[in-house]
Amino acid sequence: MAHPKRKISRTRRDKRRTHDKLTPKQTTICQTTGVEHLPHRAYFFEGNMYYNGKLVAVKQTADTSDAQE
Description:
With 69 residues, the chain is of the alpha+beta class. It has a domain at 26-63. 20% of the residues lie in helices and 22% in strands. The protein has 2 helices and 5 strands, in the order H-E-E-E-E-E-H. The protein is rod-shaped and about 75 Å long. It starts with 9 loop residues before the first helix and ends with a helix.
């Protein structure tokens, strides 16, 4: 079974582990709706979809679908 010939020092071990940490996700607050969301992503607020502070998609209600029939 393979094993190291020399002991790896704490410094060398810790250098390898420097990137093994979690960072909190960065969020922004929309100036239009005041909702906290991920930047450069579309998000939902009260059933409507927003992107860059602009309304992208409107929630369809049952009343509008009945009017079309």
